[in-house]
Specification:
alpha+beta, 2 domains, single chain, three-stranded antiparallel β-sheet
Amino acid sequence: MDYSNLSQPWQEQQIKNQRTPLRRSASYFFGHHPENWEVVVYTQSKSGDKKTKKISIPILLPVLSTIVEEAGVNGVRMQGKRPDSSLLQTRMIQSGWTILDPNRHDYMRLYPAINGGSHFSNKFTKIENLAGRIIKTFDEEMFRDWRCELMVSGAIALPHKAIIQLMLIDQNRSISKREQNQHTPEGAARLQAAYDKYSDIETASNRITKMREKAYVL
């Protein structure tokens, strides 16, 4: 059984008298710190004169942190029946974080819980009941595309050049470390992967310099 039809966006009221085997959980929101990025290689099909070939496009995507809203933790208080994390969010923003409001960015999904209340998940996770077992499947491609949309819209600022430089320095250290074990097939493969990642970060950085937000239009 697929529970997708029972999930609801954050701002909508739940369907009454319907439950899932999922247990109640705390609400949350996504946040991004300007130092946290990952390189992701997007594969695209390109048609030529005679045949279609695949090209790889490295992009730097924001790593998102899941911030749980739990009363009594990090300044979160109860406001009626819902936790109030406004103080926590203010502190995070002052520390440079970008807060992604689920009302504006449509990523949160609520499921009616078996023990009352709601189970909080996200729209990238498909939840199914297979023979009494709950199976959760995360759609990496959908999550990647959504993060690209955040970058195109300016919801999250482009990575700073200094942060990218630090990423390259860290990756260079990783290369140096792996060079010591390159004499085995496994070590050689890890070293090549480290070189490839360094190159991908450089390529993604150059695309951002030339194209700005358009580098995320895939």
